[in-house]
Amino acid sequence: MSVLAIVWFGLAALLFAVYAVTDGFDLGAGVLYGLTKEPERRRFVLATISPIWSGNEVWLLAAVGSLLAAFPAAYASLLSVLYVPVVLFIVAVLFRALGVELRGKTDSPFLIRLFDFFIPAGSAVQAWAVGLVAGNVLVGLPLDASHNLSGSWLFFLNPWALGAGFLSLAAFTLHGSLYVAAKGEGAHRDATLAFARRTFIVTAFFLVIDAVGFPLFMAARVGGLPSLVVFVLLCALAVAGYVGSFLELRKSRPMRAFAASALGIAALVGACAAWLFPTLIPSTLGAANAITVANAAASDRSLSTILILAGIALPLVAVYTAIAYRSFRGKAGQAALHDD
């Protein structure tokens, strides 16, 4: 296992964490949109994410692209074996994009109702599918010696992975509601904070359920002591993040609660990566069938070349994201709201 392969493993984990933190809050806002009945509040929720949601999706492209470039064998097996949830995720992305982009550009009552369905449905399915895919990877996939699926294609509906899907849905909804509350004032802010407090209880419930089920469903670890130590530290950091989010939420400080929620999400993604390392995709049919950093990595020459390209492209994406957030910082004003 080369140093470059290890670097790319860490970089891929970082990109997936950034995606979860950034796109996570606008997915959560989309779910909040569907649970909000008042037209004015709906317009406000949509106004908070409309300028930046598509930019957040860039981090997904960067994360998946890093997996394809650095670990093509893992990318191929992941997308082929988890074909159904991956397609479900892609369809949800398309529906949400249609809803967010076209909701304010039509006067047709039928299309307005349709887009009002697309936004929360696409957001909820996408948020749930993220956890479902991650949960299945942690549990392990039924891979044979050729890294192909062995057995029923419904294997992905295992209890822990389903629970991980509901955890990601709840965590992203909490994350999004905190963001919307931070962008609001007055009645909008107070109503969203009340929703966030209820959502925190649901998130904490699934965190506990998944933590209890963790030792029952996980594939056997193949990593050493260093990765186990990192895993424990990141789990502790995730707990600290959510405890901090709860305390700030009680004090009605949504921006600080949002920052703590971001820490919790990023730490959870990092903990998942630490648990897996040096495996990329465990196999439930035996450790010999697992896809690892060593047997899935591209050649060192390819890894060094794409690392140079990533060193150029990723800072540009980060600068773009920072400029977009800075341009739309502050409270969401009434002028930004879409008309019915």
Helix share, percent: over 70%
Note the main sheet: 2 strands, antiparallel
Number of domains: 1
Number of strands: 2
Order of helices and strands: HHHHHHHHHHEEHH
What does the average pLDDT come to? 89
- Biggest sheet strand line-up: 1-2
Please tell me what the overall shape is.
globular
Question: Rounded to an integer, what's the Rg over CA atoms?
Answer: 20 Å
Poorly predicted regions are 334-340
Strand content: under 5%
Query: What is the terminal separation in angstroms?
Result: 57 Å
Overview in brief:
With 340 residues, this protein is mainly α. The chain has helices at residues 3-35, 39-49, 53-70, 72-81, 83-102, 109-139, 159-183, 186-217, 225-250, 254-276, 293-296, 300-327, and strands at 279-281, 291-292.
Structural account:
The protein has 340 residues and is an all-alpha fold. The protein has one domain (3-336). The protein is 77% helix and 1% strand. It is built from twelve helices and two strands. The chain has helices at 3-35, 39-49, 53-70, 72-81, 83-102, 109-139, 159-183, 186-217, 225-250, 254-276, 293-296, 300-327; strands at residues 279-281, 291-292. Strands 1-2 form a two-stranded antiparallel ribbon. Helix 9 (225-250) packs antiparallel against helix 10 (254-276). The protein is globular. The relative contact order is 0.16. Residues 334-340 have low confidence and may be disordered.
